[in-house]
Amino acid sequence: MILDSGILQFIPKGAYYEGKDEQFANVKDTWDRLLAYDRVLFALLTLLNGSGFSKGMISHMLLSNPIDNGTGTDLIPAGLDDEFEKNVIMYNLHKIASEDSMPRAIKNLLILAGSDSNAKRVNNSKTRKIILEFIFNRDNRELDALAVNYKSKLAKLVRHAVGKQDIYKILNNNKKLFTKLIGRYNRHALPVVLFLFNHGGLQKDKVQGYFPLIDAYLDLKQASIMGNPTAFKRIMKKLPWRTVIGFRNTYKLDIDKAEILGTSKMSDKDKMQTQTAQKRAGAKTVRKVNYERQDIYDLWKLLYNKVLNNDASELDKIREAIDTNHEKIEKMEFEDVAIVIDFSHSMRGSKERPLHPILTALSLLSCFNFKTIHTVGGKDAIVENTPYGATVPSGSSPLWRGLIDAVLSNAKTIVVISDGYENAVSGMFNHVYQHFKESGHVFDLLEINPVYSADAKGGTARSLVEGGTPLPVTNYKHLETEFIFRKMLDHTEMVKHLLLSRYQKLIGGR
Amino acid sequence: MTSILDSLNFINRLKMGEVQSDHEMTVVPLIGELRSNIAPPESLEFTRTTSYGSMEFKNTSREEPAIIPANMMVRGKAAQDHAMSGSGVVLAASDRLFDNACCVESSQGGHFHGQAVETDVLPVDLRKALLPVSARNKREFGKLWPSIKTWLRKFKNFSTVSRAHLRDFFDDKDYKEALEDFAAAFEPVDGQIGALILFNGVPVGLEIMPSAQHWEAYWKWLIRGCYGSQLIQLRESGDLERSTLVLPNISNDTPAEEVKNIMEQFVHNIRMSMAPMLEQIQISKATEVDSIGNITTQLLTTEGGGGGDLITQNNEPVYLSIVL
């Protein structure tokens, strides 16, 4: 079994050359084999950085394949108790949610409820506890926001975890059952349950004070039903923009979309992602964003989006923020680094995730103290009448040229960021590389591949050199994960020990 | 007998891009601008099969006619897969039915009526089977079945196949992966509108589209479905030796600057050696097969049994697709 961290970073969005189904079948096969090989290691690895989707599917596999308590041998050698996997799964859910991706955390729970992806629903006590604990074990302010933002999804999850009959009983005032199943996590949560299931018995006056957003939601709904735009506009400022747009569209209210996008509640990330929509809707200026607090990948994405749409607004601020964030990101300790970036056509990525490979490559630049950068392929896109532009992936991939230029720069480490496909001419990169190695040029080659490949000869990424083992990195933040993976199969026990000691407090055991 | 360069003045207006090569296949990008008034590729939609052997297309452009790439093939679920017998032209803002199309999945019933389809261009040998004007114009939906069986039987997995299901090849997991590898090995370059395709240094096809946008849309169908599939078949049947370009020897004491010169020279030489290949393509016959609006389609026959379609708009060439 050849493993690399690609199995933790997988997102089913396809690549330029491969569909998502082909990729998923391949990665699922590797997950199955790893689960059979060492269940504890399989679970522990999810503590490392990885994609929310991979972690969700791995959690599903663990929960739908209960631990064999007949022998208990799965966990005893590692000194772990029965709760360890649950703790790992909960840790991952909260980590995903805290990294500004609550929708992904909710989706991972929906996978367990059989409502997302093709995975079968899992209905056991551990799964039910995980769902309810994640939703309700939080303070009222958080629960309030969660309920309003994800109302229908939470209803599906609670129905799955509690069961139809017991939900009916709780909605009909069975307080003992409420306390046993939900109140143990948050004793004030009954109005939230009533809200999720649109229960007519919900008394607004009881909600007020505890859950102000739910209150506002109900007021907005009332204003929508009554067709009262004045009240609607007053209340919408308190609520998330998606909820407000939803009511406006459902009740066909004559309210300017630009006004909603301009005044309703929105995270900085949403403000960035809706800039084009804000302009299209007629907003004269886009909402202010603190760009320097944003992730560098999101900033690159916004920059490309603007350049490709010939939109110069805020580009100076975005470029400044990229520079600032580039300085802030911790650098890998390599000496005299030259970076070769593949800007060929295939680095455009898939339709589902356009430009992802090149955006990842550009973000990865910030992980290194580099002396020189050598781009191969690409063409310039310029915003009309401005000095701003970006290099867009285009053309063939004579990566050998970049390698020679990097060698000429006397670099000690040459980092090549490419999807591993070479055509001008195939094999020339390897030919040139072997020549330099055999003729005494001293440098280390570090291949980083931002594209998952189902047909890689080993692991999950294609290499440009014979016997090469590229680092599969689909998110620049996951570079460290891959370095740990490198040691894994040869030193399984060492890696387990490392992860156990690093997360001892979290996962329990001795 | 005339050289294709003489008979098609537009080829002279194109220049060759950097040669791309992977194992036995070489693709020489042709770069230029034809200034045609042809609808963009997204305006063309395959809409349905109305009966066996008929394919209907819609052109949503309000101003320009659309071109259907020669021998375009559609495959989908619960319907007989079909392929065009040649290229096609659909006038602006209209539908057109081609009733000389071929079924390429002999024992499957059903018609397409809007469901999702996978699209490719027929493999080289099957395109050649449709080159005679009589074969192209024949309204007989099973006309390609004998050729499909012959083509499939050259694969070990299908050596005893009795049905003409081209999708048996395209759906096969291993072949599918190999086809994707072909697509992966080649990339469109800036301004590319066509390509000369070679197997082991011998030209097997010449494709020129109305614009770079068209090439961008259709190149995968050609490289995968038409040339990639043919190359896999030739490899497996032993009709083509496995080979790859021999890269230049570089002695260990060569300075890095000189390595660059050696490799650049190597790439330049390959490109230069490709230019005369175009002159060797000789047209022996041209037959008009369709004329609609300001567009005429001619079926060209080349020396050695090849040929394909040349489309002209107001007597200016805008599309060429020939297999050799």
Question: Would you kindly provide a written description of the structure presented here, covering whatever features stand out?
Answer:
- The complex is a heterodimer of chains A (510) and B (324).
- Helices cover 51% and strands 7% of the residues of chain A.
- Chain A is built from 27 helices and seven strands.
- Chain A has helices at residues 6-9, 20-37, 39-45, 52-64, 84-98, 102-112, 125-136, 140-149, 151-162, 164-171, 175-183, 190-196, 204-207, 212-226, 229-236, 241-250, 257-263, 268-273, 275-280, 296-308, 315-328, 356-364, 399-408, 428-438, 479-486, 492-502, 504-507, and strands at residues 337-342, 370-376, 379-382, 389-392, 413-417, 444-449, 471-472.
- In chain A, helix 22 (356-364) links the parallel strand 1 (337-342) and strand 2.
- The longest helix of chain A is centred in the N-terminal third of the chain and has 18 residues, at 20-37.
- The mean pLDDT of chain A is 86.
- Chain B has one domain (2-108, 115-244, 254-323).
- In chain B, strands 1, 2, 3, 4, 14, 15, 16, 17, 18 and 19 form a ten-stranded antiparallel sheet that branches.
- Chain B is globular and about 70 Å long.
- The mean pLDDT of chain B is 91.
- At the A-B interface, helix 23 and helix 24 of A face strand 3, helix 6 and helix 8 of B.
What is this entry, summarized?
The complex is a heterodimer of chains A (510) and B (324). Chain A is α/β, with parallel strands linked by helices and 510 residues long.
What descriptive keywords fit this protein?
heterodimer, A: 510 residues, alpha/beta, Rossmann fold, 5-stranded parallel β-sheet, two-stranded antiparallel ribbon, 27 helices, 7 strands, B: 324 residues, alpha+beta, 10-stranded antiparallel β-sheet, 4-stranded antiparallel β-sheet, 19 strands, 31% strand, globular
